[in-house]
D-arabinitol 2-dehydrogenase (Cladorrhinum samala), 354 residues
Amino acid sequence: MSLPTRALRLSGSAVLSRTRTAAAAARSAPSVVPFLNQNKNFHSSPYFLTSKANQPSPGEFSRTDPKIKTTYPGDDSSELPSSTLSPTLPSFSLQGKVVVITGGARGLGLVMGQGIVHSGADLAIVDLNQEEASVQAKELVESFKKMHPNARPPKITTHQCDVSSETSVSSCVADILASHNNKIDGLVTSAGFVENMDAVNYPIDRVRKLWGVNVDGTYLFATEIARHLMERKAKGSMVFIGSMSGAIVNVPQPQAPYNASKAAVRHLAASFSVEWAKAGIRVNCISPGYMLTALTKKILDDKPDLKKQWTSLIPQGKMGSPEDLMGPVTFLLSDASSYVTGAELRVDGGYTVA
Ligand SMILES: NC(=O)c1ccc[n+]([C@@H]2O[C@H](COP(=O)([O-])OP(=O)(O)OC[C@H]3O[C@@H](n4cnc5c(N)ncnc54)[C@H](O)[C@@H]3O)[C@@H](O)[C@H]2O)c1
């Protein structure tokens, strides 16, 4: 490749510095610049000797006669059209995928659902609260249309289900498949709840109910969808919503059954990831720290001291917001994480490493 051709391919400032360097080298040390030695006429080439200071003038590489001058507008002008697209690695897109989210009518599940549809997927929202799910599904479609007026709006369906009931889960998954061309590619399990109560006073039937939603609900949904993926011989990605409470014990509030349930969710993700790896099904766990949802906000508004105590233990010095889960969940559902399985991604502002 000749130097002028090469220089043409460099950006403006690179052209200047390369041309100066080449000229200086030719004057002081010709033996180390073989290209310039072999091309004796190069210094008198119209590509090189143009301006007084041996610097190319704007646009001169586009002309064969250096005497022709063109005046360009000021430096701040640009010939490039403006673009509203953000360059993003295509593997992060969820385009063409159908994702199911349990507990998607509210809180973290709802906001993760928003991130999922804005990344290109169709969505099935599963919740006990069908009414809320329908209202939010319409809002999600409207917000998508506003932000992406030229894109195909996502298909969002809603399905009532009690995730702790085997029959409810299997008829719900059948209903989702009927609504989405018999195809599910991803699952996010966000249905779950926490209660703060001393273990010695916690009635076992209430503990079982909590475990039923947090643990059985995750198990039932994951296995039902794994069976579907295996029958279809399709790859899939599952993201279980655990909690940092699955790895540490929160203070000062007592919540032993909840902490145990989230440890179970984390280890279910790890166990399934190994069991289903050969089937092409990835399973990962996101463990959020203290997130500011409508629910936690209400609790903390009533107890400002508790909020101070919590944030004092978070290295980032603040609680997370539901939006902080949009990127992590999209990454784990997408092909960008195709070699990530059995992982726990803690989204906790550094709480668990401090
Ligand atoms: N908010 C936090 O700070 C935080 C932190 C760590 C982990 N988490 C976990 O994130 C998940 C979501 O929490 P959130 O704060 O968004 O709660 P949320 O109460 O705002 O939302 C939970 C949703 O799950 C639904 N749900 C509850 N029981 C159900 C059942 N049996 N079947 C189907 N749907 C059911 C509810 O109707 C609700 O829409 C939970 O698993 C929670 O443990 C939350």
